Amino acid sequence: MVRRKITLVQRIGCVIGFIVSCFFALSFISTLIVSLLNPTLTSEFVKSHFIFSKFGVVGGFLIHIIGNLLFAAVAIFLALLSWKGFTSQLNQAVLVTTKCICKNCGKVHKLYYKSGPNPTDEYCKERGFIPFPVDDKFKCDCGFEIDLSSFRNDLDEGILY
Ligand SMILES: [Zn+2]
What is the pTM of this model? Predict the structure, then answer.
């Protein structure tokens, strides 16, 4: 199974997206609240506005309110979307499989590394995969010890095979 982990850049992008969306959501919501609390001021704003004034005071007022409501909804939606992107895979199980070849006898070993309960160890073993050794040293049937620390580094960096 190959699944590419989302990168740090993508994660940072999600955070920035979330902050920007929240900022816009808050500004639209606060504009909405201020407009509703102070209709007189809003009417003056609508009258002086080059687009809203074309629809009359009531029409412009409604467009202004509905527009803010819509933009706030979109901003909230985008904020939720980026938050979901940020938290995705945080608690998600990761399964990494890799092959290592014994330099002594040439035998190919299939290894797996996983976080999370699924798939089960039985599932992996049934398909001929051996758990990634905790000490990074894999002993081949021929007795040769294979050093897997370079693979470990890749695992820690989240590079999936
Ligand atoms: Zn060997």
Answer: 0.54
